[in-house]
Design a protein that fits this description.
Elements (H helix, E strand, L loop, with lengths): L16 E2 L19 H6 L5 H10 L7 E4 L1 H13 L5 E6 L4 H8 L3 E6 L7 H8 L4 E5 L11 H10 L3 E4 L11 H5 L4 E6 L12 E4 L2 H8 L9 H11 L2 H24 L3 E2 L6 E5 L3 H10 L2 E2 L1 E2 L9 E5 L4 H14 L19
Parallel strand pairs: 1-11, 3-4, 3-5, 5-6, 6-7
Antiparallel strand pairs: 2-8, 7-8, 9-10, 10-13, 12-13
The chain binds pyridoxal-5'-phosphate.
């Protein structure tokens, strides 16, 4: 049987502000300064050792505790590949990052899913399943809910599991970054990415952190050269601008609080989020998304994911102008769906 494949959601026509993919804000620095060296850079197979050392040092680790990967996606996939085999079981929450069930399917690993619809991490049920599993996946902040696991619960999960993968793709936006705690536990590896806070999703640079033996073992799965030479060069340049990154993170954290307040002013419930996005619930989620699209803003719905039919995920833009456009748009669209939700949309034009 053909395994499940990921199909990127289509962006509707006329959308010029895409807030559907949790990407980071635009960089204002010139990212293509490699200049004359580019010819030589692209002629050779990539040498990514500088980027590896630089990222490892950022986390106080040595390079052999870090595996560079083609985005966080590839880090997750290698974790699955490393455990694939007959009768292998993984455990994860539901909902969670959508590639986790897809990779389980592609690698023939049976996935046990534990419900976590926001609020506290379901530690007891998760541990119950994790103690029998070969590998456990915890995404915190979780996508699409934005919920987080506590340090105490992460410790309990680690002590009950063989191997834990903590997907911390959104760690920079959270109140607490659990990466150092996770790395002290011995059987936890941590997925990180430059796609979110660093605004470099197009480069496909991610990495896995962990004890050197686990990193070596997981790194022996998958293809060589996952990060291109150009991506590595641009990523290194971007890492030299930490001030810019810090300011956009602050902006996004403020936006998600203001946005939740705006939603609640319209009687719409959203989940407290520690990511760069907000998940809201609306009985006419599809029509609200359509309304936003008509005004040029792309947001994410999940019509095919059980339990998320009424959910809408909106990325915080990290940009004052785009944020105020988002607020104006939502203030135009939501009142159309006062209860009971109308099934027809007739939107006034709002200024872009
Ligand atoms: C929780 C989580 N992990 C990993 C990823 C993968 O990101 P990338 O492959 O761009 O690093 C994403 C992307 O949306 C995500 O939401």
């Amino acid at each position: 049987m053909t395994p499940r494949a990921y199909a990127p959601p289509a962006l509707g026509e006329g959308i010029d502000l895409d807030l559907s993919k949790n990407e980071g804000p635009l960089s204002d620095s010139n990212l293509l300064e490699a200049g004359d060296g580019i010819g030589e850079l692209v002629r050779r197979y990539p040498d990514t050792s500088d980027l590896r050392s630089r990222l490892a040092a950022m986390h106080g680790l040595s390079p052999n505790q870090l595996l560079l990967t083609a985005g966080g996606d590839d880090a997750l996939f290698r974790c699955f590949l490393s455990r694939s085999g007959p009768d292998t079981t993984a455990v994860a929450t539901r909902p969670t990052f959508e590639m986790i069930p897809i990779y389980a399917d592609q690698t023939g690993i049976r996935l046990v899913e534990i419900d976590w619809r926001g609020g506290r991490f379901p530690v007891e049920t998760f541990i119950g399943a994790a103690s029998d599993a070969d590998i456990a996946f915890v995404v915190s902040p979780n996508n699409p809910t934005g919920s987080v696991i506590s340090e105490a619960d992460l410790r309990r999960v680690a002590s009950a599991s063989r191997l834990v993968v903590l997907d911390a793709a959104y760690a920079e936006f959270a109140d607490v970054d659990l990466t150092p705690v996770a790395l002290s536990l011995g059987n936890v590896v941590v997925v990180r990415t430059l796609s979110k806070a660093y605004g470099l999703a197009g480069l496909r640079v991610g990495y896995l952190l962990g004890p050197s033996d686990l990193i070596g073992e997981i790194g022996s799965h998958g293809s060589p050269y996952p990060v291109s030479a150009l991506s590595a060069a641009i990523a290194l340049q971007r890492l030299n601008d930490p001030a810019h990154i810090g300011s956009t993170i602050g902006e996004i954290r403020a936006e998600r609080v203001r946005f939740a307040a705006t939603l609640s002013g319209f009687g719409v419930r959203s989940l407290p989020s520690q990511g760069n996005f907000v998940l809201l619930e609306h009985p006419a989620a599809d029509l609200v998304a359509e309304g936003c699209a008509e005004l040029g803003i792309g947001v994410r719905t999940f019509p095919d994911r059980p339990g998320l039919e009424d959910a809408l995920r909106i990325t915080m833009p990290g940009d004052p102008e785009h944020f105020s456009r988002l607020e104006r748009t939502i203030a135009t669209v939501l009142p159309r769906f006062a209860s009971p939700p109308s099934r027809t949309v007739d939107l006034e034009e709002v200024p872009r």
